Amino acid sequence: MKHSDLLKIAEKFGDPVYVYDSEKIISQFQRLTNAFKSVKKLKLNYAAKALSNITILRLMNSLGSGLDTVSIQEVQLGLLAGFKPESIIFTPNGVSLEEIEEAAKLGVRINIDNLSILEQFGSKHPSIPVCIRINPHVMAGGNSNISVGHIDSKFGISIHQIPHLLRIVELTKMNINGIHMHTGSDILDIDVFLYASEILFETAKNFKNLDFIDFGSGFKVPYKEADIETNIEELGKKLSTRFNEFCKEYGKELTLAFEPGKFLVSEAGSFLAKVNVVKQTTSTVFASIDSGFNHLIRPMLYGSYHKIQNISNPEGRERYYSVVGYICETDTFASNRRINEIAEGDILQFKNAGAYCFTMASNYNSRFRPPEVLWHKGKAILIRERETFDDLIRNQVDASDLFPSAKEDKKLTTQP
């Protein structure tokens, strides 16, 4: 998208605002599909948690994607967006048996990641096919908060518990139709991922009726110029060869599944915010924007990097700025970052704002969440309205009768 297009969107819909480029989403989907074209049966299940706007879900469905969900609400969104139940996989963590049973009633595929629920579900519903999430004890993510396959992770059933797992399956006579893993986000070392895949192949040999093997996702996208990213093409070539070999060994053509989220939508997203104040201190120049970590929490939560451009002055002289928000505590997006000279009223573009940005937004400080706009075929389409004060108080119950307004005390006067 051109800077002029983004500025027009900010002018039309106000700021702050999230903008998503459908063309980039489509090209990322096609890139991943092409990387594994030598696999006969490939299924990409978009991870709804990355960006769950129903229009984005409909776009994914139109591309032939399945849907990876982690809550019953995401399952319901997927069904509303037109996904068939069998195209949705439910991969929660630490939820109740009741929530898993509710998802099963809707006809979606079930993925269980702990022995307790596996035994309970298998005992009650042995005829319902179940996928098992394995923890391969491989550290493959780029940050401890998003690396979920290591030995201390809360996710998945440990490979050291396979004997216990097999005993549960044998006793309950349940049907295991899939094996799954997810090592973490921002994977760079393909060999580490392939090593974890071998653990998954070895585990799969214990089950005779598999339909698919799900390798998770976590592919790293570039966040800055010349940044390192997962080499999808190399991974596709190596894993496809090994997967096809395994299918021959297994005696059945299995489906190779992935659950990409960030890879598909991160680069497609921009977050636009206006500069309220440029403030010079003794050592720092602050650019304070009309937003905060209530709208873009990842830099404060993960230390994530978002490239920031001044699209109001893209040719201006570069200076050092610390870009901060309006939340009344530490609220920093970037420290001493080189950005084209900023003036009050300029619009800043935060890149890689498609994944885990709106979905992690909140009403902290009682601020409204921004609108979402889809840039599709050269047009800006509003896909979520900006919140209003009515939205902020919609579900609050007015108990004003409990606390009547304080009345002003009457001053005592002395009669003469």
Description:
It is built from 12 helices and 18 strands. The chain has 2 domains: 230 residues, TIM Barrel; 113 residues, Lyase, Ornithine Decarboxylase, Chain A, domain 1. The longest helix has 19 residues. The strands form 2 sheets. Strands 1, 11, 12, 13, 14, 15, 16, 17 and 18 form a 9-stranded mixed sheet that branches. A hairpin with a 4-residue loop joins β11 and β12. Helix content is 29%, strand content 22%. About 2% of the residues have low confidence. α2 packs across α9. With 416 residues, the protein is of the alpha/beta class.
The proportion of residues forming helix, as a percent range, comes to: 25-40%
- Remind me, CATH topology of the largest domain? TIM Barrel
> What's the helix-strand series?
HEHEHEHEHEHEEHEHEHEHEEHEEEEEEH
- Please report the first level of CATH classification, the CATH class of the largest domain: Alpha Beta
* Average pLDDT over all residues: 93
Kindly estimate the percentage of residues that lie in beta strands according to DSSP: 15-25%
Structural class: alpha/beta
Report the CATH superfamily of the largest domain. Answer: Alanine racemase
- State the shape: globular
Q: Supply the number of helical segments.
A: 12
Largest sheet: 9 strands, mixed
Distance between the termini: 81 Å
How many whole angstroms does the radius of gyration measure? 25 Å
**pLDDT < 50 runs, ≥5 residues:** 141-150
The number of distinct β-strands equals 18
Just name the CATH architecture of the largest domain.
Alpha-Beta Barrel
Indicate how many domains the architecture comprises. 2
Keywords: Amino-acid biosynthesis, Decarboxylase, Lyase, Lysine biosynthesis, Pyridoxal phosphate
Binding site for substrate: 298, 302, 329, 356
Organism: Maribacter vaceletii
Family: Belongs to the Orn/Lys/Arg decarboxylase class-II family. LysA subfamily.
